[in-house]
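Now for one specimen:
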Amino acid sequence: MKKINIGTEYITLGQFLQIADIISTGGMAKWFLSEYEIIINGEQDQRRGRKLRNGDKVEVEGHGSYLVVGNE
């Protein structure tokens, strides 16, 4: 499981995809989320504005599993 470090209380799913180098621009987030399944803490979620906080586990279809690590 790869760790994604954040320096704020939370990041959005769209920002996460960029930080994890899954997409190159924020504009790609909407398309990516419509094409790939994203599982956050065991539940599917496709909202690019979904807030991810310290300890959240994210599984991205075809890209692997990630753990959000940062401020609480």
